[in-house]
Design goal:
Elements: H1 5-16, H2 27-40, E1 49-55, E2 62-68, E3 80-84, H3 98-108, E4 111-115, H4 127-141, E5 153-158, H5 160-175, E6 181-187, H6 211-221, E7 246-253, H7 257-269, E8 274-283, H8 294-308
Parallel strand pairs: 3-4, 3-5, 5-6, 6-7, 7-8
Antiparallel strand pairs: 1-2, 2-4
Length: 319
């Protein structure tokens, strides 16, 4: 199928406005350009409350942003989502991803905690990953401060955020706290460093994220000798068993499509329950375009159903 006409229009508008690809920018320029593009996509829905807090980590505290859905005072949140934003480990802020976070909270009825992990190249691998590991571990230990007993804890992320989320859960499996997580939600995650898959051969003029961009992101994140490390390329982990059930969403026009779908297969082969959703005619980052394409709404609805179907949290209590 061809790229959705709305996305074609967004790509054309970005190019006519002179937006440079990530690969042609410095990190600072890329951050400014990305922030402007996020703002242009519009705001998320109204929510009940928003507050910032500090999350302790081994590298010092990082900022978190807690979003409460708009619910009746007597209605508890359906669960808690720890959300790890994308941006190739280099760009993205809590403000840039506020629309996605608000939409997830509103659509699922869950409270949502965003994690402001450290970015490369100022803080290269494994700094951001350690922040995410420590944040999820801290939330798992203090979940009663955020949600009622028995409500599920969900870890979610998009793109590089999905990479950090699932890599952190692998560390949490070894440390013993990943069992507290009822579901991992991965929107088009970075799963491998192999840039010779068929989806990497898609035409650049139909992509929001190109091969050159991914090379740029990887080079800022870590030395090339480290790219095959399973903490960066989780598809290369020898053992994926024991990870939380997963919902994985992929897009047709996305260089990361093939590796994300391969990761879903590897999880399934390891005995992990996986729901893989492929969105035709969509491009990388499409859930940020929820104000423009119905498919983004469909993705949020599907995630909400997956969370509602969790049934039990990591402690075995009924949700």
């Amino acid at each position: 199928m061809s790229l959705h006409p709305t996305l074609v229009g967004l790509l054309r508008a970005a190019r006519e406005a002179g937006r440079q690809p990530f690969a042609a920018c410095t990190p600072g320029q890329a951050r400014e350009s990305f922030a402007a593009s996020c703002a242009a996509l519009g705001a998320g829905p109204e929510v009940g409350a928003v507050r910032d807090l500090e999350i302790p980590t081994r590298g010092g505290a990082v900022r978190g942003r807690l979003i409460r859905p708009a619910l009746e005072p007597s209605t508890p949140a359906a669960g808690l989502i720890v959300y790890v934003h994308g941006g190739g480990w280099v760009v993205g802020t809590l403000d840039d991803y506020g629309a996605i976070a608000r939409a997830l909270a509103a659509r699922t009825g869950c409270a949502l905690l965003m994690v402001d992990y450290r970015l490369a190249p100022e803080h290269p691998f494994p700094a951001g990953l350690e922040d995410v590991e420590d944040a999820i571990s801290w939330v798992a230990a203090h979940r009663g401060d955020f949600i009622a007993p028995g409500r599920p804890l969900v870890v979610a992320g998009d793109s590089a955020g999905g990479n950090l989320a699932t890599a952190a859960l692998a560390a949490g499996r070894a440390a013993g706290w990943a069992g507290d997580v009822a579901l991992q939600v991965l929107f088009y995650p970075v799963a491998d460093c192999d840039m010779d898959t068929p989806s990497y051969g898609l035409p650049d003029d139909a992509l929001f994220l190109t091969r050159a961009d991914m090379v740029w992101f990887f080079r800022h994140y870590a030395p090339e000798a480290s790219w095959a490390d399973p903490r960066i390329s989780p598809l290369r982990a020898s053992d994926l068993s024991g990870l939380p059930p997963a919902w994985i969403g992929t897009a047709e026009y996305d260089v990361l499509r093939d590796e994300a779908e391969a990761y879903a297969r590897r999880l399934t082969e390891a005995g992990v329950e996986v729901r893989l959703r492929h969105y035709d005619r969509m491009g990388h980052g499409f859930v940020r375009m929820m104000n423009h394409v119905e498919e983004a709404d469909a993705a949020f609805d599907d995630v909400a159903r997956a969370i509602a179907a969790c049934g039990v949290d990591g402690t075995g209590e009924t949700a």
